[in-house]
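Limitations

Structures in this collection are predictions, not experimental determinations, and the ligand pose is part of the prediction. Treat each record accordingly. The example that follows, with magnesium ion as the small molecule, is included so readers can see exactly what is and is not provided: the inputs are given verbatim, and the output is the predicted complex.
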Amino acid sequence: MFQSLSDRLQGVFDKLRTKGRLTEKDIDAALREVRLALLEADVNFKVVKNFVTRVRDKALSADVSQSLTPAQQVIKIVHLELIELLGGESAKLKMSPVPPTVVLMAGLQGSGKTTQCGKLAHHLKSKGGNPMLIACDLQRPAAVQQLEVLGERVGVPVFTEGADVGADPVPVAKAGVEHARSFGRDVAIVDTAGRLAIDEELMAQLARVVDATNPDYTFLVIDAMIGQDAVTTADHFNREIPIDGVVLTKLDGDARGGAALSVREVVGKPIYFAGTGEKLGDFEPFHPDRLAGRILGMGDMLTLIEKAEETFDLEQAQEMQEKLRKAQFTLEDFLQQMQQVKKMGPLTNMLGMIPGLGSQLKDVEIDEREMVKIEAIIQSMTPQERIHPEIIKHSRRQRIARGSGTEVQDVNSLLKEFKSVQQMMKGLLGGKKGKLLRGLGVDLSKLQGMG
Ligand SMILES: Nc1nc2c(ncn2[C@@H]2O[C@H](COP(=O)(O)OP(=O)(O)OP(=O)(O)O)[C@@H](O)[C@H]2O)c(=O)[nH]1
Ligand SMILES: [Mg+2]
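Predicted complex:
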C-alpha cells in the first residue's frame, strides 16, 4: 500500500538520521523531498503545501526532547501531522437511539458502493448486529441482483421492490427503511445508483433518496486508485449533497496515496472505512494512526519512541549527563543505563535513543547475550568496585568471574572497554569548545547550564 511514497519518505528520514544536530537548512532540505514525495503520490498541492508548512513550524519550534535524537523528533512530527492529515482520531459509527441507523452509500460509477454495502453488512453482522440491505440502484441493469447475491452470501436480508431500470428509487428507499424499522433491524444500508460525473438528474434523484430516508450517515464511496481527481469530485459532490464521511476503496491496489491523503483536508469529512480487496472480509474501520505508521514504515518505531520517552525521565537523563560532564560516569551508571534500555524491549537500533549519546551509536550492533553477561559481571562487583574499577586486581577479577558465571577474560574485556569509554568521554568534554560533543548531537548549552 502506497509503496513508492513509503519508500521515498523512508529514504528522506534515513538521510536525516545520519546527521547529529539538524540545522534549519537540513530540515528545509528534508522537507523539500517530503514535498516532492507527496506531490508524486498525487496528493493535492494545497494539501501538500499546508502540510509541509505545519511540519516545518513544529520542527523549528519543537522543544528539545532529551530522549529523542533530532531526526527522531522530525519523524515524530511528520508522523503526527500525517495522522492529522488522515483525520486524527478514528471515526466510529454511532448507532442511532431509534433504530434503524440509516447508512447510505453514494458515489461515482464503479467506486465500489454495492460491494461496500455488502462488506459493511458483513462487518456489522460479525459484530453481532442485524443489518439489512436496501436496493435503491434502479439505474444499472443487474444492480439489484448484485446486491441480492451479496446479501445472500453474508446472510443478510435485502429489501427490493422490483428491478425496473429507470424506476424511481424514492419509494423503495422509504419502504425499505420502514421495513427495517418494523422488523427491528439495527442498521439499514442503502445502495444507490452510481454516476459517471456529477450528473444533475442523478444528483437530484439522490437528493430525494436522502430526503426520504434521512440517513444518519451519508457516505461517499471513493476509489483510491483514481487519486486526487476522485477527491475533487468528492468536494463537488459534498457541496451538492452534504456527506457525513468517506469510505475509501481499493486501497489494496497500487493507489499512490493521493486520495487518502487529500480527502480529509479537501472535503473536510472523516474516512470511516477502508476497502482493501474484493472479498467481503476486505474491509476495516479506518485508523489514521495505523495508516500513517504504515506509510512511514514505522508501525513499531513510534511505539519505540514513546517507550523511550516513558522510560527515560528527564531528571534522570540530566543527572546522567551531569555525571558524564564531570567524568563521573561509573560502572554503576553503566548498569543502570543498560537496564533502562532493556526495559524498552528489543535492543537493535535503540542505543541511539539514549539521551546524550545521540545518533552516532545507532548502527552499533548489540548482542543481547553479551548484555546479559555484562550485567552479570557488574552485578557481581561490590559498590566500591563499581565506582572505582581501578581497584579490581587479579584476585577480585577471579571472584567476579566466578560470581557471574563468566571467564576472567570477560571481566578483563569489560573493564578495558569501560575504561576506554570513560576516556572517550573525558576527551570529548575536554576538547576545544566541546566541538566533538556538538558533532555528536549533544546540546552543550544544556550541559553547561546544569551544574
Ligand atoms: N481491489 C478492490 N476491488 C474492489 C474493492 N471494492 C470494490 N471492488 C471492485 O470494484 C468493482 C466495482 O464495485 P461495485 O461495488 O460494483 O461498484 P459500484 O460503485 O456499486 O458501481 P456502480 O453500481 O456501477 O456505480 C467490482 O469489481 C468490485 O469487486 C476493493 O476494496 N478493492
Ligand atoms: Mg453499485
